[in-house]
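Hi C.,

You asked whether I'd gotten around to modeling the 206-residue construct. I have! Everything is below, sequence then structure, no commentary in between.
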Amino acid sequence: LMADNPTWEGLGQGLLVLAALWWAWVGYSWLTSVVVPEEGWVRVALFAAMAGLLIASLCVPEAFGDRALAFAISYGVVRFGQIALLFLAGRDDPDLRRSVRFALAGSTPIAIGLLIVASALDGAAQAALWAAAIVIDYGGPALFGSSGWRLMPAHFSERHGLVIILALGESIVAIGVGAESTDLGLGLYSAAALGIGLAAALWWIY
């Protein structure tokens, strides 16, 4: 998305999409701290959410264009799947169910609705609705409370640590993809080696 539009507008659009996808990632990191992924319907619901997120990811390059509506709907499937699974996880936990009902089930439909409306717009109006959707989606737990949330710190830190590993792996894949459209030569070999060196340095810091 940002590579096809290397402008301030493209950067802003990329950050908005990243914010939405990051919130989905964080939500499922919390979710899988409190549900058993191997449990029957939990597994089915997680597969459905994975399918929704795959479709959303396919729409990312045109998330502000021709595939804006498809992105909004598939992203909505992912977010509502999280809410349903948290309700399931909280069947014996009234505090968790209360937090989910007010913090997520109240704000998420508004945010998804704004993304759907934004899909019919363009330019500044579209960006403004996206920004409002992100603020509302992120702000739900802060506004309505999150006293019932439970967390397994080891699982949570592992999930977020894996983001780094995934990003580094994707950066190496990107080096190969970029090389496909270029004539091979000493310059490209050097650039590829430097790219691997940069990824290795980031991994070392991690």
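If it helps when you're writing up: The CA atoms of residues 96 and 164 lie 29 Å apart.

Thanks,
B.
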